[in-house]
Amino acid sequence: MMKRTMIALVLAMTLCAATAFAGALEEIQKRGTLRVGMEPGYMPFELTNQKGEIIGFDVDMAKRMAKAMDVELELVSTAWDGIIPALLTDKFDIIMSGMTLTQQRNMSINFAEPYIIIGQTALVAKKHEGTITSYADLNDPKYTIGSKLGTTGEQAAKRVLGNANYISYETEQEGVLELMNGKIDAFVYDLPYNAIAYGQRGEGNMIHLDTPFTYEPLAWAVRKGDHDFLNWLNNFLFQVKNDGTYEKIYDKWFVDGSWQKEIQ
């Protein structure tokens, strides 16, 4: 009798676990909506246009993802410092917000396979042209550098350029503006954003040391234990990278540049 009871208990626990981890895919299908968390301030991955709409590379990928699921798309604008807690408390199903896959983050959330590889670069005040020719030159107490709070840019600035004075900013735009106003000597951040910021405001104001000094894979994040969702995401990424979809979206946001007219 005891043996039969134990077997029943194990089966019940297995069923509960299976139900608990039926996961986001089942919930998305029932709801009819894919909820995507992102902070719209990271060009060209997610940003807000003149109409107040969230646009960007990640947005177009999310639209394609929702279409593949045959559901509607809901974008959930979320502050960066609260984006992981919001995922864990089911405010949305997935983070698609240019998030770097790090071992620290991986302790609390799961990542799909990386969809793009980037790295940190430095925008440097024009007055230092010819003096600062490499990121390593910034590793000096006479310089003040900045980056965005809670990002891998901040981590890299403190780790690699620890001898410099450091200032943290709430947004990327604030950091670039402070650089242009002469409050800091350099702004350390992700290559795609810095490249666009330089293209928009760089001439006569700054130089871009555009060789990345870190290796950073960006990936979509989901709650831990949801293996079915991860499997779907990895298969989706494989599909779009091999049927021309990814290349088309990539060219729109990283090569063409005409989208910049929507935010000017």
From TrEMBL:
MF (Gene Ontology): ligand-gated monoatomic ion channel activity
Residues in Solute-binding protein family 3/N-terminal domain copies: 33-257
Location relative to the cell: Cell envelope
First-listed, main subcellular location of the protein, grouped into a coarse class: other
Record flagged with keyword Glycoprotein: no
GO CC terms of this entry: cell envelope; membrane
Alphabetical UniProt keywords: Signal
Coiled coil spans: none
Domain Ionotropic glutamate receptor C-terminal residue range list: 33-256
Region forming the signal peptide: 1-22
Pfam families per the UniProt record, alphabetical: SBP_bac_3 (PF00497)
Gene3D superfamilies found in the cross-reference section: Periplasmic binding protein-like II
InterPro entries: Iontro_rcpt_C, SBP_3_CS, Solute-binding_3/MltF_N
Family affiliation: Belongs to the bacterial solute-binding protein 3 family.
Protein name as catalogued: Amino acid ABC transporter substrate-binding protein, PAAT family (TC 3.A.1.3.-)
Native source species: Desulfofustis glycolicus DSM 9705
